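Whiteboard transcription, Tuesday session. T.W. wrote the structure tokens on the left side:
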């Protein structure tokens, strides 16, 4: 049985269109992010930010959505609390999401299905970085230290201080 070329081309186009529609639906329906695979819109109940973020000490990763460009972009990343404040950490400061946050600091964070609409500012204060170093070492590497310092040039990572939107 021989398939006519135009019929085959029509079926291929319909299949590609179906994949495109499925991709758009998945992106905007909140599927993902998972591990290193980014997602789109984060859905969930929107709540006001809490006064103390210490409850995130038992949470390894949160989901962050940025708003730069035509499509939302969401990822999973490390979360820290220090003195009741919330911080997001990235192993590399030149990731897509970190560049997007620097361009537009208004983000959405999903923690256990709850959405918080927040602002993230890149931490450049070395004293705050030194205060966060023991938090990172203890939470993600199991190393208990009382003080720590970031060694200049030893890491490409970055941290964002998170606060309510103004």
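and on the right, the sequence the group agreed on:
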């Amino acid at each position: 049985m021989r398939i006519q070329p135009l019929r085959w081309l029509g079926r291929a186009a319909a299949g590609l269109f179906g994949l495109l529609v499925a991709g758009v639906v998945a992106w905007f329906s909140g599927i993902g992010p998972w591990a290193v695979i980014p997602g789109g819109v984060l859905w969930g109940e929107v709540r006001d930010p809490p006064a103390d973020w210490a409850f995130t000490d038992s949470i390894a990763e949160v989901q962050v959505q940025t708003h730069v460009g035509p499509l939302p972009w969401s990822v999973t990343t490390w979360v820290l609390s220090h003195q009741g404040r919330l911080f997001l950490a990235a192993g590399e400061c030149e990731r897509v999401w970190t560049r997007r946050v620097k361009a537009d600091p208004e983000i959405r964070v999903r923690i256990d299905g709850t959405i918080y609409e927040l602002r993230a500012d890149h931490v450049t204060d070395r004293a705050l970085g030194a205060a966060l170093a023991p938090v990172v070492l203890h939470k993600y590497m199991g190393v208990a230290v009382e003080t720590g310092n970031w060694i200049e040039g030893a890491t490409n990572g970055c941290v964002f201080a998170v606060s309510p939107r103004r």
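Someone added at the bottom: The chain has a mean pLDDT of 83.
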